[in-house]
Specification:
- By secondary structure, this protein is mainly beta.
- The chain has two domains: 33 residues, no CATH class; 142 residues, Jelly Rolls (Sandwich).
- It has one helix and twelve strands; from the N terminus they run ββαββββββββββ.
- A six-stranded antiparallel β-sheet has the order 3-12-5-8-9-10, with no helix packed on it.
- Strand 8 and strand 9 form a beta hairpin.
- The N and C termini lie far apart (36 Å).
């Protein structure tokens, strides 16, 4: 089967080798429409216990309307079992994800969504967990970010033990407007 990767979606479409031009510029019948998407792959942190930014994505002002949202999907890998690792997702100065990954976890996927609450200056986020789906004992993060102005989305990681590592394998950011 021939494989074409579009964002985090894998399509099987016949046979033959996977060509770089197909991944970067897939034939039009295989393109997945994704309005307002940004993608980033690969950044690691190891060697100290400082909170380290792995990616910064500029979200243009007006990308999400009063009832719109940002959907952020990340894929992580971790090495070492000496201490916890803490991935962060921050938008406009507010942490919408900052949760500890246990020493036994070697990979994780998170999906969080930040919703405007019928206003371009009032938001609520989902469960503050790496899984991003399901219940939590934490209160949902809220903010009063002006989404009509460009804001940075930063993705970071902090290690409890400098000998461990945290890798942001991939991230896809989508602006969703109903």
């Amino acid at each position: 089967m021939r494989r074409i990767i579009v964002g985090l979606l894998l399509l099987l479409v016949g046979s033959g080798p996977v060509l770089a031009q197909d991944v970067l510029n897939p034939p039009s019948q295989f393109r997945i429409p994704c309005s307002g998407c940004a993608a980033y792959i690969g950044a690691s942190h190891t060697g100290d216990t400082n909170k380290t930014t792995l990616a910064t994505i500029a979200i243009p002002g007006g990308s999400i309307g009063p009832n719109g949202s940002l959907k952020i999907t990340t894929m992580w890998s971790f090495t070492g079992t000496a201490g916890t690792k803490t991935p962060f997702i921050n938008y406009g100065g507010t942490d919408f994800m900052n949760t500890n990954v246990t020493t036994a976890q070697l990979s994780a996927r998170s999906e969080i969504q930040i919703f405007n609450k019928n206003s371009t200056s009032s938001q609520v986020g989902g469960a503050n967990t790496v899984a991003g789906v399901g219940g939590t004992s934490s209160v949902s993060p809220t903010s009063s970010i002006d989404t009509t102005v460009s804001q940075n989305l930063t993705i970071a990681c902090q290690l409890a033990n400098a000998g461990d590592s945290c890798t942001l394998e991939a991230v896809v950011v989508q602006a969703v407007n109903p």
